[in-house]
Design the sequence.
């Protein structure tokens, strides 16, 4: 019998197939082609093909927009939003709109076009995570911005047009709807139970262990109870913290370790699947709307990894009703048993 | 300057590109291959390849599960939900689940494997719409079911595995989250404005005309102000009605006319694009939860047509934050000017 499972935070029901579960080998996948270094705008010595960098980790004597860097952040050449201008909020009849003000940046994770994130040493991954933090803190000084969305697309089906390893961020003057829903759900739970929902989730996941993928002193990786997608993984910090950018140096190393191991397991289990990951964090600290006054207690930042093994049908987008052909317990068991 | 636009019902912000707008010819599309009639389980005289029919429009002397039908409804051979059993609602620690009880049916729209819905005469399309209504009414007699989701996938990227023209329905024991959000948004608007949001939308769309696709005495087709996808179209009845299944015979003909014209325009403008459409309607009338007591006044059923021209990135699913490269005003202008 298939099961209907409810996401405990946002209340979305998901159909989870329990018979005829699809196993790793049964997903047809497009192989991700490596990049041709000569045509790669993100390679070392091709710096002139990107807009000027806004941040970089680079060798002491190297110059901006020249070689000698480890991580480089540049504005997106075709940005979805523009940095200049005011918000220009206005109505248009019954509708509401504002100018598309925001930042859209690319985080080039390495000069090496063939070195995937999970193949980097822990220090390399930690440098990428630190870059996320640095850019987030910097952009949130701009009081027009309410949220910084950090995400990584791997593979063309996941939306990555350039194969060179990179992440992206979009700073927006509004808080995305799904973030608001999570805040509201977490607040409601705390109000009712007087306990954090994320604390309860971690307690149950680490105790039951059936959906656990891996864990260390700082982080727990697990396949969520109401996974929408096969092999979906959530990485959550053990320490209560609503804001990703409050991550401490030792936690960055522990997160790098968890992220590396999780992505390695997914790559090995599913033959380098295309995926997206997203950092879900609290919106800008100030101005904090009154109804999120308890955000530090209610909400916890986390990372969602969404492998692209099945089509996302418009039907699912249109209704919020997902059908997941692989139970998270089976996905987690498979990922746990993969030896790296 | 790109624009941020807010969906007036559910409050989702969408980034709408206004420069470099993508025009119909610029979307790369996979052509949908026609079916091989010999291997087509939905063809006439292949009735034995489907589970026994639950409903059909057929010639007077024809026999169930034999030839001589115009529309045929059969259970899905690989259903996402099972009809038998009780709901078995229970907790599992902090999580909630229930048995995957429900119905999953296929509406075979014509015996002709090559006759797409928009190529049928008005009477043929009306027969398909009437079948939706008949199945919806029948399934909602089962008190376990709260919602009947009617949808049509066209093309493999849109989730259709069998090319023979068909729609599907899923009856579920829960109301999908996005339906709840629409009900809540519509109720909030009515509470604040003392007017129906759908009435206001129709008034503005028919008056401004910039996002209008086509209209007749019963229905209006328009590209919504905060379209998430290029060439997204909403079809809405002029008469206030929360429940699709309350549609009257003359309205069925008018809807068939609007649906035919809209799909023909999309097919011609975008070279037979893959798409999904979804009927959004109110949940089961009884038991009606107290907080939806005003549903008949607040909410209006409608159809959303979502062409699959761009990838749906996991990023967008994960955050509810959509980037639409074609302004709905340009899409609507293009569709209006297409001559059928």
Sequence:
């Amino acid at each position: 019998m298939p099961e209907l499972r409810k996401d405990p935070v946002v209340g979305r029901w998901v159909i989870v197939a329990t018979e005829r579960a699809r196993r790793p080998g049964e997903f047809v996948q497009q192989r991700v082609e490596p990049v041709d270094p000569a045509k790669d705008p993100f390679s070392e010595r091709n710096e002139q093909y990107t807009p000027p960098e806004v941040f970089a980790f680079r060798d002491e004597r190297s110059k901006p927009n020249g070689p000698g860097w480890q991580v480089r952040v540049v504005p997106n050449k075709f940005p979805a939003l523009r940095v200049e201008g005011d918000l220009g909020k206005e109505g248009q009849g019954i509708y509401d709109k504002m100018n598309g003000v925001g930042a859209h940046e690319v985080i080039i994770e390495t000069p090496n076009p063939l070195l995937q994130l999970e193949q980097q040493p822990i220090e390399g991954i930690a440098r990428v995570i630190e870059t996320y933090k640095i850019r987030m803190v910097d952009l949130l000084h701009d009081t027009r911005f309410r949220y910084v969305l950090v995400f990584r697309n791997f593979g063309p089906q996941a939306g990555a047009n350039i194969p060179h390893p990179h992440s992206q961020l979009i700073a927006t003057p509004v808080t995305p709807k799904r973030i608001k829903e999570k805040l509201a759900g977490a607040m409601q739970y705390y109000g009712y139970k007087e306990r954090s929902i994320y604390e309860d989730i971690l307690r149950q996941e680490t105790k039951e262990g059936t959906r656990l993928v891996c864990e260390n002193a700082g982080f727990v990786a697990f396949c969520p109870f109401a996974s929408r997608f096969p092999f979906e993984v959530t990485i959550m910090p053990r320490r209560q913290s609503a804001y990703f950018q409050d991550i401490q140096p030792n936690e960055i190393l522990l997160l790098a370790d968890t992220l590396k191991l999780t992505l390695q397991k997914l790559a090995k289990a599913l033959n380098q699947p295309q995926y997206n990951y997203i950092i879900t964090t609290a919106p800008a600290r100030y101005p904090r709307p009154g109804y999120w006054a308890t955000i530090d207690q209610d909400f916890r930042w986390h990372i969602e990894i969404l492998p692209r093994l099945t089509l996302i049908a418009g039907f699912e987008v249109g209704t919020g009703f997902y059908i997941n052909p692989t139970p998270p317990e089976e996905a987690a068991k498979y990922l746990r048993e993969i030896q790296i």
